[in-house]
Design goal:
2 helices, 29% strand, alpha+beta, 9 strands, five-stranded antiparallel β-sheet, 168 residues
């Protein structure tokens, strides 16, 4: 009787054919690397978001200052910005003294997001900025406020008539 030796179509056990594809271990290594890179990217994004929030808050404060000046000019009543490191609101001069501003968008306290701070470049962390109905500068003094986030800062320059955001 003749014995027939058959060969299997594939490689011997434990050996891979070069075109066989990828192993589970290789897939897991690639997924692990991708997860680490995604984590690094996610940690870098809040810094970009803080800068955008800083710019947005500075523009909002400058716009509100402009609105309050316009309101003072039209109404003939002086306004003021009461501020501290945590936020700000506007008040209006009436016969009864300084009261909540008649424009509800200006009267409500606006809190500065926790990662930001509002102060003067000199380090003062609160005060009152007067907005006179004749658009003159109180005491002839230009007002500069500073919004900061870490080591990034933007200046809000107020000259009695308008406010501008200045990048440093």
């Amino acid at each position: 009787m003749r014995s027939v030796v058959t060969r299997s179509a594939g490689p011997a056990r434990g050996r891979r054919v070069p075109d066989a594809g990828v192993t589970l271990v290789e897939i897991l290594v690639v997924l692990s690397i991708m997860a680490v890179l995604a984590g690094i990217t996610a940690l870098a994004l809040p810094a970009v978001n803080r800068r955008a929030t800083l710019r947005q808050e500075a523009e909002l404060l400058a716009t509100r200052l402009d609105i309050a000046v316009e309101h003072s000019l039209v109404s003939g009543r002086s306004s003021a910005l009461d501020w501290n490191v945590d936020g700000y609101q506007f008040v209006e001069r009436t016969r009864d003294g300084w009261l909540e501003h008649s424009n509800s968008n200006l009267a409500n306290w606006h809190g500065i997001p926790g990662t930001l701070g509002l102060n003067e470049p000199s380090g003062v962390t609160g005060g009152r900025v007067y907005l006179l109905s004749d658009m003159s500068l109180p005491e002839g003094k230009l007002t500069m406020l500073e919004l900061t986030s870490g080591d990034t800062r933007l200046l809000i320059r107020f000259d009695g008539a308008s406010a501008q955001v200045i990048s440093e």
